[in-house]
Amino acid sequence: MSRLGSAALTVVMLVVGALLFAGRLAPDSLAQTPPDRSEVVLVLDFSASILEDVANRNRFAAAVDRIADRIDATSSDLVAGDTTVTIVQFATSAADYADCVDLKLIESPQTVARFADCLRNVAKAYRKGLDPALTRKIGVDTNYVAAMERAARHLALDAVRPALILFTDGKHDVQGVPVSQVQPARDRLFGSRSPFALLPVGMGLSSTERDALESGLLELRIIREMPACVSGTKFDWPQVVFESADDAGNAVAVALQDVTCTFTVAPTPTPSPTATPVPTPTPGAVRSVRLTPGDGRIEVAWIAPATTPLPIVDYRIRCRSGEGEWIESEEGASLETSAVVEGLTNGAAYECAVAVVDARSEGSWTAAPTTATPVGRPAAPGKPALEARDRAVRIQVPAVDASLVSDYRYECSDDQGRTWPVGIDVASSGITTTEIGSLTNGVEYVCRAFAANAAGRSDPSEASNAVRPCGSLLECNPAIPPILGLVGFLLLGGLLATLVALYRDRTRGYVVAVVDVVHTANLGPGSRLGIGFVRARPGGPVTGIVADRTGNADVRIRHRGGDRFEVSDRVDQHVATSGQPVIMTDSLGVRHQVILRRFRTATASPVSSRR
Question: Using alpha carbons only, what angle is made at residue 338 by residues 334 and 341, rounded to the nearest 5 degrees?
């Protein structure tokens, strides 16, 4: 419905109503144009997907409160119309909203006030979030089939303007009722209804899920021979998904307005009788128009006029590039002081303007003082380069056109990119280098970067090479500690070997053997020694002795430490002390006296003595 058309129709209806109450129209004259009978069911999503999101459920609650305020302000319009309203809440199942069913607003200010109170209670329920009692009643999933079946019970078959307004923030996802049953249920319940309107309002908050939500709601939408509020226009509902809770709440209000033809139009003061025509005052102009470019769009914001002769019912917003055609916002009737003009070309400069619409006329256009150029999301930055710092890393990405990027986001991971717990947002200002702190020295990190502008944030860059923050020469050079450890080990080994050698040199001595008083030999150092007997001829007398460390020595000696020796021959074994004689037997059975003496001074190689 066009904005001016809606305002014009409102003027006609309100003037007729005013004349009726003033007694200036005969009742039978008014009976010729009774208001259309509207049956409206407002179906609201109470599933966990919306009630668990504190920020957005509070925003939507605020939008519902604003709708209630507008109902109070336009009570006389609703009383003059023939509208019956029902509120249904749904999740896994659906249920009528208590005391808000089949509210007949015609000629009943009390029922209109009750309708406003119902919406305020809905807003309170949204702010409260998940309620165990409500969860037990209707569950937590999203079931479009149950929502439509409950709504169908309240839509009279003889209504001239029957409509179902469905608010949701998620796809049909209830267990046991596959999504393939949604369209058959819609066709079964409403396929033969004419006229009929099923107007979805989707709060698609996630850009990754918005397309899927929009596709499903477009298939669910019905606009079949629905009469428009203004003759010569067409009833339409082109947009089904809205980016914010505020936008979705406003869309619910617009849907109610479109199906009732009375909902959000401000009341027109009753004209005072006068014989002199009074010029129609024009609305005041808006102030301080500001433009914020986005991806194929420009958000236009302004300040409402300081004064205006009649209540404002709408704003018109338009933009154009050069001398091209004006492109108007398609957000519908709204008293919000901001709107979005979409369908624009990225890279082209646009001028934009805003005009006020009241119940009688349209005001002059107020242009923004500057142009705005829509831009798309920036491309992902190049692979970051990292430099280790003490408990930090210095990160740099390749430079890009600074006009395309307003901010960068940098993130670092200590688990090879499985999670990204460390992040920082930095205004661009043409600088693509920053430092990320509060890291752990010695831990390996990889980092990535995002670029952002008014249109949104880019995809992530390729992950950087890994670095380890460090605070000293040893921490920053991982190869040094092993090398130093090996050098230290070798030095320690050499030191120990030197100490052992020194110790052995300090304590090393030698043993001298005296046999039969006349034969002497230096047996040398060590713990295993021996004496060999020397004969001039086999079987002859002993003519000398030599040191013999082989296992075949005639006398085998084992130094037990200190001055003690263990002495063995082929027959017996004795324990001797340095300087003490012992009797040993040689291989011929001849007995010999052996005296061993231990000396503590260094000596040369063993020496033999013969006589």
Answer: 90
